[in-house]
Structures are given as C-alpha cells and as structure tokens.
Amino acid sequence: MIKVGIVGGTGYTGVELLRILVHHPETELKVITSRSEEGVRVDDMYPNLRGYTDLAFTVPDADALGECDVVFFATPHGVAHALAEEVLNSGARVIDLSADFRLKDVPTWEKWYGQEHGAPGILPEAVYGLPEVYRSDISKARLVACPGCYPTSVELGLIPLIEQGLIEDQLLIADCKTGVSGAGRGAKVGSLFAEAADSFMAYGTSGHRHLPEIRQELKAAAGGKDINITFTPHLAPMIRGILATLYAQVPGQKIEDLQKIYEERYANEPFVDVLPAGSQPATRSVKGSNVCRLALHYHEDTGQVIVLSAIDNLVKGSSGQAVQCMNIMFGLEESMGLQHVALMP
Ligand SMILES: NC(=O)C1=CN([C@@H]2O[C@H](COP(=O)(O)OP(=O)(O)OC[C@H]3O[C@@H](n4cnc5c(N)ncnc54)[C@H](OP(=O)(O)O)[C@@H]3O)[C@@H](O)[C@H]2O)C=CC1
Ligand SMILES: CC(=O)N[C@@H](CCC(=O)OP(=O)(O)O)C(=O)O
C-alpha cells in the first residue's frame, strides 16, 4: 500500500483528495494536517467520510510526513516552498496542488505571486502535472506541480490546435467561468452567499496569476514560440465547475478536420472526452468526475473556431488530476480510484 500524507486537509482540495483516496485500492492515508483543527477527527468535521477514516488532524510535521511514500500539498502558495525539500529528502515524493512549482521562471513567479520564491533549488526538477502532455516525465518525477484549475481547462482546449501549427500570430481569447469553491474554504466577502449566489462577474481583468502559467504551457506546445492569449476569469453563481470558452482564428478549415485533430490527439486519454462537434458541455456533466469535456464549433464565414472546455475545478482542476499523477508516478493504472460518474444534477 502507498502511504499518503495530506498537508491542508480541511480545505476544499484537501477534502476532495480524501473523498477520492478513501476509495483508492492501493493507498493508505497516514497523515492529514490542519493547524486550526488539530486533534479533531476528520469525520467529525466531514460527516460524509464517517466510516471511511478514523484519522484526526495533526499539525504539519516534516518527520511524520517524511515517513509517507507521497505527500500532497493542498495549501496556499508558499507552504510547499517551505516544507517540500525536507519531505523529499526523507524519501517521500511530493505532489503540490498549489502554484509553488508551476512556473519555471523564478522572477515571473515572484512578480505574479508577490513574494520571494522559497525553493528555487528544487524548482528545476518539478514536473508540470498535466498527464496529457507530460505523462512520461511524471512517471519518473519526485516532485509534481499540479496545474491550476483554469490552466487545465484552457491548455487541454487549445493544445491540439497549437501542436498542429494552426495558431500563427494572433491573439487567442480564453473566456472562463468558475464556481465559488475555486476561492477556497477560507472566509472572504466575495464568497458570501449574498455576494456570489445571485450574481455573475468578471475579475482579474487587469491580469490573473494563471495567465503566465497558461502562456508558459501554450509556448511549450508551440515548440518554444510565444503564443499570445488574453484570459478573463468570471465568478458564476455555482459551487463547482469551470467552463472555458476559447476563441481562435483558423480560416479555411472544415469542422470535420478540426474534429479529427481533437479526436486523434485525445484518442488514448482516459480523462478527455471529445464530444461530437456542435455539442454544449455543461459543468454539471463533469461535476465530481475527473473528466474534461471538449466540444468544437466552427464558423466557416469568419474562420473562427470556438472550443468549449468543461471541468470540475476540484477534480480534473486539482485533486483528481493530482491522484491521476500519483497513479502514474507509482506505476498504477492511471484511472485507479478515479472512475467516478459525474454527479447529476
Ligand atoms: N479550490 C480550487 O478549486 C483549487 C485550488 N487549488 C490550489 O490548491 C491549494 C489549496 O486550495 P483550497 O483547498 O481551495 O484552499 P483552502 O483555503 O480551502 O484550504 C487551505 C488548507 O491549507 C491549510 N493551510 C493554510 N495555511 C497553511 C500553512 N501556512 N501551513 C500549513 N497548512 C496551511 C488550511 O488548514 P489550516 O489553516 O487549519 O492549517 C487548509 O486545510 C491552493 O494553493 C489553491 O490555489 C488548485 C486548483 C483548484
Ligand atoms: C473564484 C476564485 O477565486 N478562483 C480562484 C481559482 C484559482 C485557484 O484555485 O488557484 P490555483 O492557482 O491553485 O488553481 C482564483 O481566481 O484565484
């Protein structure tokens, strides 16, 4: 059995990791941390887990974490910087759900996250945890940096066009909508029921920290050529889910050919579902599941392709993708413990 530790077990991604891992046949949860809930039983705080775990929260301790085979960091930015190296030195592998190791360029990270990079020494070995692109590197990694939720939806939606060289000098548009759980479990005015439940708004319009991450990965898909993209996130009155509406100009194409590009690119991917062209993937069709649902629309008169990309931010956008990476790192069946049918409605 793989011994698992979770740092940040009371947050939304931490408890989603728990929901997935209590059904995973090859893992045993050993440590789950919370500084504010030390000593509280996990199932007292999350009654949906009654009968599945008798663990209690403990404060983060590098020695206890180092006895695990793998440690997930489901924590705010900066926490994995402080602890990951010590945990790695104890022989455990690290899967970080935060943004601490996603950006390869330290000054870029410091600019967007507004703090000093706390672990530049181990950054070069971090592998970006998008299995559809980096599966082979993930299988050999000690340190995996899970992609952000928005970047997962945007990158899976645009990479097939970019890899085909169909995106020449142009400004791509990523118009993305997310639910309130994306902001985490901490109390914030913007997450209050009266603020978010009956409203719809854009935010981060002057620049969101996921933009450099999206640019880094689209550039890699383009073989090192800069890809220009504008990204606007929106907060929608829902709890979970992301719908990315992606616009590109690809004149002179046929929808059948574009569809074929996507179907072939993702033919062997267990968690990317290319719907028939013209479909409308809804966030509820992926709620609770690790699947990204994509659909293409093409306007022959303008040459505009619209790619719709739907994920659950807490599953394919974070905890599910993290477990997918763990399965790859430990040589397990990639979909082990992740074959959830979406929750309806
Ligand atoms: N929510 C989402 O949709 C997504 C989130 N992410 C990323 O995953 C990470 C976790 O997000 P989320 O679950 O939403 O966050 P939450 O705010 O819901 O939870 C944060 C967790 O981290 C713990 N924590 C906070 N500060 C520290 C610290 N200094 N040291 C140790 N533990 C700490 C908290 O417990 P306590 O304070 O009791 O120790 C809590 O359990 C973030 O980096 C986020 O950006 C990534 C993709 C999607
Ligand atoms: C609604 C809301 O606030 N969403 C978050 C989503 C990002 C997130 O969860 O952070 P990661 O970088 O770790 O993926 C935001 O825009 O910051």
Automatic annotation (TrEMBL):
GO terms for biological process: L-arginine biosynthetic process. Catalyzes the NADPH-dependent reduction of N-acetyl-5-glutamyl phosphate to yield N-acetyl-L-glutamate 5-semialdehyde. SUPFAM superfamilies: Glyceraldehyde-3-phosphate dehydrogenase-like, C-terminal domain, NAD(P)-binding Rossmann-fold domains. CDD domains: AGPR_1_C, AGPR_1_N. It catalyses: N-acetyl-L-glutamate 5-semialdehyde + phosphate + NADP(+) = N-acetyl-L-glutamyl 5-phosphate + NADPH + H(+). GO terms for cellular component: cytoplasm. It comes from Thalassolituus maritimus. Pathway: Amino-acid biosynthesis; L-arginine biosynthesis; N(2)-acetyl-L-ornithine from L-glutamate: step 3/4. It comes from the Bacteria. The gene is argC. It is found in: Cytoplasm. Gene3D superfamilies: Dihydrodipicolinate Reductase, domain 2, NAD(P)-binding Rossmann-like Domain. Residues 3-141 form the Semialdehyde dehydrogenase NAD-binding domain. This is N-acetyl-gamma-glutamyl-phosphate reductase. GO terms for molecular function: N-acetyl-gamma-glutamyl-phosphate reductase activity; NAD binding; NADP+ binding. Belongs to the NAGSA dehydrogenase family. Type 1 subfamily. Its EC number is 1.2.1.38. The active site is at C149. Keywords: Amino-acid biosynthesis, Arginine biosynthesis, Cytoplasm, NADP, Oxidoreductase.
